[in-house]
Predict the 3D structure of the following.
Amino acid sequence: MEKFLIYGNTRLSGEVSIGGAKNAALPIIAATLLVKGVTTLNNVPDISDIENLCEILECLGVHIQRTEQHTLVIDATRLKTTHAPLDLTSRFRASYYLLGSLIGRLGKGEVGMPGGCAIGQRPIDQHIKGFEALGCTVDTTHGKIAVKSKKLEAATIYFDVVSVGATINNILAAALVPGTTTLYNVAKEPHVVDVANFLNSVGADIVGAGTDQIIINGVKSLKKNCTYSIVPDQIECGTFMIAAAATHGDVLIKNCIPEHMDSLTAKLIEMGVTVESENDTIHVTCNKRLTPTNITTLPYPGFPTDLQSPMGVLLSIADGTGIITESVWESRFQYVDELNKLGADISVSNSTAVFNGVEKLYGAPIYASDLRAGAALIIAALVATGYSELYNIHYIDRGYERIEEKFKQLGARIERLDEEEEI
Ligand code: UD1
């Protein structure tokens, strides 16, 4: 186990480049199972969730080569089983995308009940509703999800809640089903659009991704030997935007898509941060204590729940009281106790947190409770006076590539140490 030693009172400055989106790369890697041949993916982040997914694909018989740090060459010509190892699939959430792809390719699949960050109840009823509408039977007993169908049929599916996972999984399952499948009340996140773009680039016929309704005209097969580049990571970009603001920094963020950041940019500007966007860069500067604001997390294009905890750090040091209402995951305020250890003044009641801004935070030993909370606590430690030790950083490695290197590039003093190592 490792920890970060983080020295505070840091003002971040310089340039940082954003990598490929974890939440797009995971389903797109799963989607390569639909291609009977080789697919090359560029801009794939080098993070532990991707490593885990590749390990599972290899167990299914897929051949994968990381030819460069961010390039995967995936050969799914032959699959030897539709049963993904339960222990591996249970390690992280996105393993459920294998179901959509396996159903689409072979009409059946089995994975362990998905794991992932403990940020609240994570039901999969909407995934199942879609699979059943496409003609599958689904068994969720014995800690696994087993799906099979005699014959898949195009369907009209109206989701009861807007779900990224259910939207993508049903796109994957329906891409090769003859006829027209229509999904209503779908998620519109950039990673949903990226999955549809990838599938269209290999010959699928999917229309409407990024709107409330997606139409999938099933095609017979997908093209092999295609190359696709994963979209930049919206959440990594937002993390660095907030870090720049919180540390009163001056940071140029490169290789990002500014329009994906609109809801965050609007909030930062409202609080007094200067944000200048151009083509694929965002320049964030801040030189004063910020005005508080109120935020409600929502599906895209609303304020992303995955940036709620970094934003909580910003509110904890704002000049007054701000409120965050978390409407997506009910257990996403676990980082609050850690921020309060650093001297913040935050109280939580159900899905609402009230942040009474303090002038200073002070370094302390703190614990990441999940991936995004971990990133938020790095920002808090960079702001705090003194030094902090941040534990449970394996959560952060699930979704951010070499995060400490990127912060170091911006002038942060942050070291990765063995958990036992004395300072
Ligand atoms: C994805 C992201 C996660 C992000 C979330 C919301 C990945 C790997 N993870 O998670 O980082 O926080 O989107 O942007 O891409 N729900 C149901 N039934 C379902 C599915 C979901 O009720 O069948 C509910 C959930 O409890 C939650 C909401 O819908 O309240 C959104 O969940 P969903 O969009 O599915 O999140 P994930 O795809 O798991």
Remarks:
- The two ends are 16 Å apart (CA to CA).
- The mean pLDDT is 96.
- The chain is about 30% helix and 25% strand.
